[in-house]
Amino acid sequence: MKENIIRDKSFQFAIKSIDLYKELIENKEYVLSKQFLRSATSIGANIEEATAGVSKKDFVNKLAISSKEARETFYWLRLIEYYNQDLNLNTLKSDCEELIKILTKIIKTSQENI
Q: Looking at residue 77, which CATH number applies to its domain?
């Protein structure tokens, strides 16, 4: 399969997010961890759906959902960090911001070509 940077980065982000989720569960943090896991893994799931879009508009819509999920994930990371200050979430937050930037660029470029 052809290399797809956003697809690969979102998959790696999901793996790191699952690792954080497991750590949070071990520390009996159930509410924030579940919300975080859902949005974090949804980013890549919607990117996968976008790659099979039936039209450019469908492709853009799926990526827009991924972008929203990435922004929600960043919110949950901030909340988790606030309540668990001993965790260093800088790398995950940085990865999430990078996904948001890439998705924004792809969406804008794709919208120009519709």
A: 1.20.1440.60
